[in-house]
Amino acid sequence: MSDVVVVESPAKAKTINRYLGGGYTVLASFGHVRDLPPKDGSVRPDQDFAMDWEADSRGDKQVGAIAKALKGAKTLYLATDPDREGEAISWHVKAMLGEKNALKGVTVHRITFNEITRNAIRYAVAHPRDLDQPLIEAYLARRALDYLVGFTLSPVLWRKLPGSRSAGRVQSVALRLICDREAEIEVFKAREYWTIEALFLTPGGAPFTARLTHLNGKRLDQFDLNNEVLALAAKAAVEAGVFTVGSVERKRVKRNPPPPFTTSTLQQEASRKLGFGAQQTMRLAQGLYEGVDIDGETTGLITYMRTDGVQMAGEAIASIRDHVSGSFGANYLPAAPREYTSKAKNAQEAHEAIRPTDVTRTPDQIVHGLNSDQRRLYELIWKRAVASQMQSAELDQVSVDVVDGKGVKLRANGSIVAFDGFLKLYREDTDDASDEDDNRMLPPMSERDPLKRQKVDASQHFTQPPPRYSEASLVKKMEELGIGRPSTYASILSVLQDRNYVKLDKRRFVPEDRGRLVTAFLVSFFEHYVDTGFTAGLEEKLDEISAGQLDWRTVMHAFWDEFSKAVEQTRDLKISDVINALDQDLGPHFFPAREDGSDPRICAACGNGRLGLKLGRYGSFIGCSNYPACQYTRRLAIDAGEEGGETLKEGMRSLGHHPDTGEEVTVRRGPYGLYVQLGENGEDKKVRPKRTSLARGMDGESLTLDQALGLLALPREIGLHPETKEKIEAGIGRFGPYVKMGAVFGSLDKDDDVLALGLNRAVDLLAKKLASVRTIGPHPGDKELVSVRKGRFGPYVQHAKTVANLPRGVSMDDITLEEAVALLAEKGKALKPRGAAGRKGKMPAKAAAAEKAPRKAPAVKAAPAKKKAAPKKKAAAKSGAKAGAKMPRRAAE
Predict the structure, then answer these.
(1) Given CA atoms 359, 362, 363, 369 in this order, what sign does their dihedral have?
(2) What is the C-alpha to C-alpha distance for residues 123 and 125, in angstroms, rounded to an integer?
(3) pLDDT-based confidence at 686, cuts 50/70/90?
(4) Residues pairing with 245 in the sheet
């Protein structure tokens, strides 16, 4: 019987099965096979952090398949990924198999491999080990921490901050970084400064540009020239001078290649160079690691992609050096191999760097086996790994001082690449603007060379606020602070977006108001637990657990004792306390200072109320202190629309005032959707202000005053029908936008604009409707038109509000005016008793039943056709109209 190997993915299983041959059965666990149930009590701190584990149907199915394959097998190889999560999956699989009594007589081995190649797989099988218990305990601690924070802190959020989502342990810290950066940007005040640059010509006529650094013998700081007057005076001083070369400094510097990729640096560089998000990068890397079809064989192209190590295997380094020497020449190969040291504090987590499994598989050679995104990412990984073993680049940096002998000095910087080295293959993208000087060449010059001055420019600049975080810079910041680990970066960024706490705008993270509220709440009442230093310290303890240096339960008890007390302190927290704390913290965001100096919190509706943060059943909003007298509200978003752009999903947005009446025009949200309103409710509640629903496709956030006035003016006259000369109107009714001609209505298509619909389009829409309507002629009684129409239940004739169905077998085209009048007259007799009795509206139920009973008599007589129906006639007779309603159905049975 064959031995059993368990991996995580089916793609990996197929490849490994081929490498190992017929003596092995390779099965996939499809990731985790069980997890903590998403309910309170799955982790019990009072029972020394005992945990309940629960398998889903897929996990049960996969473990069942493994148990079935183990019958008769001697060895089980647990070959899940070589990281903490992979170790945990192996532990879960073994535990579930043990519960099924499937491991009797089976030897269990743990094997790991950093690349899916034939040699790596066979070497792993030949060198098995036991499960790494410290690594499993680190997993247990991390899982318990995340669970307890989520299930303890989230309910506090829901009770004290309605409308918020759940709070995660590491995600909340990452969110705080984004929100803190946004707060820095909001309070940033730009400062003006000027630079002076002059164009010079050498004695040989070669041009170069230099920037003013000294004036009147004094070195200029950035803000010494902070207005146009000072800048123009400095410009004039340069224009008045006669310049020579004061000094020329030359030095050769080396630039070393960057190390091969870790998870973090791969995500950063893929974001900068390729525009890939962290999730996309990891998904593509997973596919390259598990293997793609190359020449009919599934081949793993890169090593394991979740790592914080930069070292490479010795054979890989040797192979890369051979490739560099053969492809680029001996000059590009350093004398000794380059060795990089990992910054990871836990050696067990510091796996080999991300590199190609076979350097001879160049991106050009395997281009046909990859899609576009896979090819680009593989090329990035391949070039970075190869470049890491190439010779350093050498650059000649030159600095030239230009002087006039009267205290005015300018400086020109430049550099040229003397030897490109690794730059021949790979250049690392950075946010450092100084790199622009790398290829700026200066012409040959010597000291005391006379220079000919050309034009002089004075340029105005303003300091810029710190940039918002991109995916790359946020991952880099988290790595620097020690927050999260390689396997968590992508999921952290994804969760923040999924919860609508942040959004990506031009590839930069912008916090949503919901995210800022959550951060402000956590900082106000749980600051210790969203502190970057505390979170990084906890990560270090988890690393020490995985290294076997700390007991995981000891760490958990220390955390839980403090955390549970902090949560308990918020039990009696009043909503008013929350509002006051958030209002104070986020006031500058929701009520930015106005240029005219007026109070940004004054209510725009009543003029004397104070706007502030409010909490409602469905979340937070801005409201007036004069509520309920003033019901002004707006949503939590700063919008640069008209008149301040005050908006609120739960309330209204002011669009301006009517040009004729001066009444305010607002867009509001009602129980049936958005609508525009002219003016406010008066003292007479019977007189309501004019309102109109928004047309389909209109956005209440971007609606303009002109559009709103057009809606309020509906229905509008479009023109006269070219044939009938009847008036055609457009409006919005109960069922949406329409066009109308007399009693004929036509619905607008989704692309039609009710405010801009023209006569030709209106005629086309009505023509479709008129195709189902035929006018027969004027009624002899009052000369109103009689028409025949297609109805839901068949054709009918109509005169005013009276309708009569056509007899069966009579088509719309055959009915004459005389026949239609007769049908309508018969219908009128049936309706006449209502009017004769002086009743309006619907008849009482009993009277209606009495009138209907005679018309149902024929159906009752049909009942004796079935012998068994006869005994029920007496019972039916007792109920009058009810019998008439039910007997036909029974007779039909």
Answers:
(1) negative
(2) 6
(3) low
(4) 402
> What is the rounded average pLDDT of the residues 359-365?
91
Residue 844 placed within a domain: no
Residues 763 and 792 both lie in one domain? yes
Q: What is the DSSP string of 466-513?
A: PPPP-HHHHHHHHHHHT-S-TTTHHHHHHHHHHTTSEEEETTEEEE-H
Read off the amino acid at residue 587.
Answer: G
Pairing between strand 664-670 and 652-657? antiparallel
359 and 290 together in one domain: yes
One domain for residues 269 and 387: yes
Q: What is the pLDDT of residues 602-645, one digit of tens each?
A: 887 787 888 887 766 556 678 888 877 787 777 664 333 333 33
The pTM (predicted TM-score) of the whole model is: 0.63
Q: Which range is most confident: 285-294, 482-491, 841-850?
A: 285-294
Q: What span, in angstroms and rounded, lies between the C-alpha atoms of 392 and 423?
A: 8
Are 267 and 387 members of one domain?
A: yes
Q: How is residue 740 written in tokens?
A: 């109308």
DSSP letters along 420-459, please? -GGGGT-----S-GGGGGTT-------TT-B-EEEEEEEE
Residue 261: closest CA among 321, 301, 324, 305: 305
- 628 cis-preceded (ω within 30 degrees of 0): yes
216, 190 Cβ separation under 8 angstroms: no
Cα dihedral sign for 864, 868, 872, 874? positive
Q: Residue 829: give the domain boundaries.
A: 726-734+742-834
- Encode pLDDT of 37-66 as tens digits: 887 789 999 999 999 999 888 888 899 999
Write out the catalytic residue numbers: 304
Side chain identity, residue 452? K
Assigned token pair, 849: 């039943």
Q: Which two tokens stand for residue 308?
A: 């914080």
Q: How far apart are CA 833 and CA 660, in angstroms?
A: 51
Question: What is the three-class DSSP state of 66?
Answer: helix
Q: Which helix (H) or strand (E) is 667 found in, with range? A: strand 664-670
DSSP code for 401 = E
Cβ neighbors of 162 (< 8 A, separation 6 or more) are: 615, 616, 617, 618, 619, 620
Instruction: Tell me, yes or no, whether 846 lies in a domain.
Output: no
Instruction: Classify residue 863 by its DSSP letter.
Output: G
Residue 883 has pLDDT above 50, yes or no: no
Phi, psi of 338 (to 5 degrees): -85, 130
pLDDT in tens, 532-589: 888 888 888 988 898 889 999 999 999 999 888 888 888 777 777 777 887 777 777 7
Phi and psi at residue 50, in whole multiples of 5°? -65, 145
Give the number of domains in the chain.
7
Residues 208 and 243 in one domain: yes
Confirm if 731 and 740 have CB atoms less than 8 A apart: yes
- Angle (deg, nearest 10), helices 84-99 and 133-160: 100
CB 37 within 8 A of CB 58: no
